[in-house]
Amino acid sequence: MQENLSMNRKGDGADIIRNNLAYMLFFLAVFVAMLFFVSSRMDNVAFWEDFYAKEIARVIDFSKQGDEVKIDVTMAVQLARKNKVEFDKIFIFDNEEGSVAVSLSRGTGKSFRYFNNVSIENEGTELSEENVEVRQLIFNIK
Amino acid sequence: MRKMNKKGMAGDYAMFFVYIFIVFIIWGGLAAGIFSFFGDGYDFKEAEAEILINNVEVCLREKDFFSGEFDIYYSCGFNSNINEEHMIYVKRASDDEEIIFGVRDYINQCEFVGGKENINFPECVKKTISVRGESFEVIVGSNQDSRGILSG
């Protein structure tokens, strides 16, 4: 009886490890997928692309020919830098279509059309004179 | 002894479905939480319609919309792209003459009560404007949302 018991215990132990290994592998796979999903959503790049495209279009719709526009885009630039987007590809204006495109992650972006019939010139970003931490998008309305 | 072990194992295997169920509940909750917080996007239709109706008002005060040769794009400085996802409706009160630019069906969609809660319907703004002793009813609708693009 004692022999049987010890044999059973060994057998159960091996079975428990084998069974739990499947659970643990599954749990690990789910956990890694969850981490990846949450971390990709934490930046919320799609929202910020949408936000900046619409806000820049709003400013253009409000503006008149001859205006110089400066917009604080620090957060967008930080996100783009984190996602290795080249500086000159973050904000792209299409004067023919009348649209602004914002790309904060490689390969994707959001575009929004403004209704004001103006052309955007001399666009670029520079550091604010008041605060070097602030990055500004600057362009002229023609 | 072997039979007893098999019965025990069957109980363990049955728990796998409970485990999967719990995992799905957690995943579902996480996804629902994230999408309810971030998923709606940034709604800009009403704000855009407000800006557009103000620009139309400025233009209406300067130009005669009901002259035969009137071109809203040239006269008011609008892009022709407003034809696709916007509507500008102007009605002169004195003779009920009306003029519509853009998507004509938005005039119906703007009046549809059920559309207020539907994100696929345009957001509309109405205004009554008095110019040179005449009253005009102006309705502007916008259904523009940002479009996803592939960037280099």
Characterization of the model:
The complex is a heterodimer of chains A (142) and B (152). Chain A has 2 domains: 1-42; 45-141, no CATH class. In chain A, 48% of the residues lie in helices and 26% in strands. Chain A has helices at residues 2-42, 45-62, 74-82; strands spanning 68-72, 91-94, 99-105, 108-113, 120-127, 135-141. A 3-stranded antiparallel beta sheet of chain A has the order 1-6-5, with helices on one face. Chain A is elongated, with a radius of gyration of 27 Å. Chain A starts with a helix and ends with a strand. In chain A, 27% of the residues are buried. With 152 residues, chain B is an alpha+beta fold. Chain B contains 5 helices and 5 strands. The N and C termini of chain B lie far apart (66 Å). Chains A and B meet through α1, α2, β3 and β4 of A and α1, α2 and β5 of B.
Keywords:
heterodimer; A: 142 residues; alpha+beta; 3-stranded antiparallel β-sheet; 3 helices; 6 strands; B: 152 residues; Ribosomal protein S3 C-terminal domain; 4-stranded antiparallel β-sheet; 5 helices; 22% strand; elongated
